[in-house]
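Quick one, T. Sequence first:
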Amino acid sequence: MDIIITFVVGFGLLVLLVFILHKHQLSQAQSNANKILPLPPLDSTLEKKSSSLLDNDSEKTLPPHLVRNDGPSEIKYKHQGSEQATDPANDHWLAKVSQLKKTNSFTLALAVCESAYPRWSAYQQAVLVHRARIKELHKLEQPIENELHALYKLTALAEFLHGRVKGLPDLSLAQLKLIDPKVLQNLDMPYDSIGYLELRLIKKTDIRLILSKWGKPESHQSPRQHHSSAWLRLAASQTTLF
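Structure tokens:
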């Protein structure tokens, strides 16, 4: 009798154990199945918004020098030794010249320009002052010959100092500042030899006026080329100082 009871109890425990194991296996299988199921697809509207944000953000955050530009590039000639327009000292004298020109104080305006020589912009402003004075003399029906000569001489001197000529050295602005202004003033700038085609500060209105007064030149060449020997001497003297 004890044997039978023992057998029945043992069999019941075995059945219970088998049932528990079976439930455990079913639970484990369900868990594994959930892990390998693919994720549901993203909403198409959300996906488009995300893509758009990424594209726009990449455009905004890229620094300018890295943004692709397939358009044609333009290389601008930079004057040798030219100064930056953002220089506070440069802005100061430019503002003074501008104010003096408005009141037709041409002599004072030229004096301010001379204080900023040999900057390219100083010659440029001085030429503008002479041009304004010529216009004013025209209104007053006064002779303009002296002003026209002064304008032409300045454009030639600016080109002599800042223009580039193949085979001739260039000087920095610091070196140009060491040149004696009297040496420059003593340089002759003959219209018949230099002409006007190599002078970047000469404008079409100036050319028409010059042609009406002086006629056509015999040739056109850079002032630095015309005075190549003098330029080489100046360059040699400045090179020894640097």
